[in-house]
Design goal:
By secondary structure, the protein is mainly α. The chain is built from seven helices and two strands. The longest helix is centred in the middle third of the chain and has 27 residues, at 31-57.
Length: 126
């Protein structure tokens, strides 16, 4: 399906210097998604490390910090215990972002045009 748009006007509005002469060049890779996933993975790894420290420092063994009740939940067995839920959840998320290599591997196999299988990049991106 094609859309009747003024490509030069859209390019100007978006701040591009020019339009692509070959539309396949404009959609033939997913480098921007690979770069986003790499950056997101790196940020999440550092957040996970910080979250691990918060979990450790707030534990009974260390007791260096006390996390406010707004960011913890009580235990059903020990109601006085405060579980640092947000830190624990952040600590466990990085493996979900490590789809970077899968996206890069998938991108390597693309032909130099748009194909339906390029939609497989969405899971890692979202």
């Amino acid at each position: 399906m094609t859309y009747n748009i003024d490509r030069k006007f859209v390019a100007k509005e978006l701040g591009f210097n020019n339009i692509s002469q070959n539309s396949l060049d404009a959609v033939a890779d997913r480098d921007f998604i690979i770069e986003f996933e790499a950056d997101a993975s790196l940020c999440m790894m550092h957040l996970s490390r910080l979250a691990e420290e918060l979990v450790l420092w707030s534990s009974g063994e260390f007791d260096f910090i006390e996390i406010d009740d707004a960011y913890t939940t009580g235990s059903s067995i020990m109601p006085q215990k405060k579980n640092p839920d947000i830190a624990e959840l952040a600590r466990g998320k990085p493996p979900r972002l490590r789809q970077l290599m899968g996206t890069a591997d998938h991108n390597e196999r693309f032909t130099l045009a748009y194909n339906r299988d390029m939609q497989e990049d969405k899971e890692g991106f979202f």
